[in-house]
Amino acid sequence: MEDTPATPTPSETPEASEAPEASTSEAPQKELIELEIDGAKRKFKPEQILNVIKNYESLQSKSKEFEASQMQMENLIANLKENPNLLWDFAESLGHDPRELTKTKFKEYLDYEKMTPEQKKIYELERRLKATESEKEKYTKEKEQQEYEAKVTKYYQQIEKEFSDFYQKSGIKPSKDLAMELIKIQREELDLSGKRPSVEKAYETYSKKRDQLRKALLSQLSEEDIPEEVLKAARKKLQSDARKFKPPEQRAASRKKETGATKKKGLTIDDFFR
User: Fold this and answer.
1) pTM, whole model, 2 decimals?
2) Contacts of residue 112, Cβ cutoff 8 Å, sequence gap at least 6
């Protein structure tokens, strides 16, 4: 089974963990927003515009971080050019031993000077080949990282859209606890079957598990465990429901009475000569 990128948490509001039951009627469709782009008018959903704004703000934040890191690197290079001895301090700050580095580099210089001209050419070719392979490996890793980030971004957007559509269609209020439960169910099903269920299917599973847990808890309760005010409210509700329905004997007698009252008497030949 292919590893799925970590599932991000959809947009949420601090609501209670208990989500209301799904509404049978669909939520009204949001109006489209018309924008003019490059001289052409196009209509977008509000959530599409919000996603573009979020991505833009994320890119701005990363751009600022990159500029700050670049500035630090330029300052470091400028300081090393001005005072090369800082190179050893910098190496030591990274956990290296400046003396060992000096010994190793000095030995390389001596070995190089002992080489014949042909050996020096071979050494230079090997050094360039290693540098080329290192650059190639670095490029491959960067490309794989970019592809992974693009895949993760697309997956995040897909998950966010699925949850947004589900909340709008069902009328259920978004909440962090509910979203985490649904994502957990999706990942468990993905591990078992290799397929990630839809948000609707995950909510059905969540509702069934919640009902089963509720019934299990209720089966273990006795009247002593239930607060008196809850018992009174339950008895009152049962009595109210009982008054709405007649006992079986009364319903049968009522149906018989109604049938007898509405049944027409059969006509005889004498009725036509009265």
Assistant:
1) 0.35
2) 120, 123
